[in-house]
Amino acid sequence: MNPVPIRRPFVLSGGGARGYAHLGVLKAFEEQSIFPEVIAATSAGSIAAAFICDGYNTDEVRQIFKLHKLGLSMQWRNWSSGFLSLKKVEQVLKQTLRHTTLESLPIPLYITATNFVTGEQAIFDKGPIIPAVLAASSIPLLFQPVMIDNVPYVDGGLSGNLPVEPLIGEYRDIIGVHVNPLTPYNPAGGFLSNMDRTLNMAISERVLKNKLLCSRFIEPEGLGEFGMFEFNRLEKIYMIGLEYARHLLEEYPEK
Fold first, then answer.
1. How confident is the model at residue 58 (pLDDT cuts 50, 70, 90)?
2. How do residues 204-234 score in pLDDT, each as one tens digit?
3. Is 218:245 a contact under the CB 8 Å cutoff?
4. Bridge-partner residues for 101, per DSSP?
5. Whole-model pTM?
6. ∠49-205-182 over CA atoms, to 5°?
7. List of E strands, 190-233
8. Between β-strands 109-115 and 151-154, what pairing exists: parallel, antiparallel or unpaired?
9. A Gene Ontology biological process annotation (predicted)?
10. Residue 9 pairs with which residues in a beta bridge?
């Protein structure tokens, strides 16, 4: 007999390429018949969450990434060609998502971005899915802000990289997944390494507070060896998320 499915609220952080670990973590939960009842997400986590809340399973999302070569399109190349083609992400979302608005999704989804005028966290749970995902993923200096209703929005991690706020008071037993570990300082680190560390330090305090609001906090060990721009290593990132969550669920089963 198949076990009765368990539904839990999930929070998925940003983390650039490390966001692919979310699929590995969710796969481990799928194997235990534990599925999201709602997801709150930002930045890279919102890309994974959009597919999952649209009704895809983790294997299907991985196939979409492989078929459309999203990993290749998202690698840092050079200053002239830029980093991470959001146009490619937008194109793939348009081609593959079955729903167009947040309120029509079969699994509720809250996407958080940062109001670039006030610096405040903005929560999207209605309206078009794709602009909200793009806004939540737009790192300042690397991308132009995304305009929604004449307001510029940028990466949601800046105002809360573990956006548990939309779920508080409405859901219990929240599972927070954070893929942006703060690694030991390396004085020999280059520009991208230092930029990655700077972003992590800037957002770490709020993450520490929000993790206390989760009944289970998952931060896969080993992700620190991957930079947020290493989209050519997605499979290794996925396996770290998968194996870490498998071990965690074996040692501490969800009840």
1. very high
2. 778 889 999 999 999 999 998 888 888 889 9
3. yes
4. 128
5. 0.91
6. 75
7. 216-218
8. antiparallel
9. lipid catabolic process
10. 38
Q: What crossing angle do the helices spanning 43-53 and 129-136 adopt, rounded to 10°?
A: 150
Which residue matches tokens 């481990």?
28
Measured distance CA(86)–CA(139) in Å, rounded = 11
Which of 142, 172, 171 lies closest to 158, judged by CA?
142
User: Three-class SS of residue 199?
Assistant: helix
Distances (CA, A) of 189 to 103, 125, 225, 233, 234: 43, 39, 12, 19, 21
Q: Are 167 and 174 in contact (CB under 8 A)?
A: yes
**CB 10 within 8 Å of CB 38:** yes
Tokens 């770490």 sit on residue: 204
Write the CA distances from 19 to 91, 150, 171, 216, 237, integer angstroms.
Answer: 19, 28, 23, 18, 8
Burial of 161 (0-12, 13-18, 19+ CB in 10 A): buried
> For residue 75, which phi and psi values (nearest 5 degrees)?
-80, 145
**Does residue 180 contact residue 200 with C-beta atoms inside 8 Å?**
yes
Quick: pLDDT tens for 150-183.
999 999 999 999 999 999 999 999 999 999 887 6
Asked whether the beta carbons of 97 and 130 are under 8 A apart, the reply is yes
CATH topology of domain 6-251: Cytosolic phospholipase A2 catalytic domain (3.40.1090)
- Judged by DSSP in three states, 147 sits in strand
Catalytic residues: 43, 155
Q: How far apart are the first and last CA of the chain?
A: 18
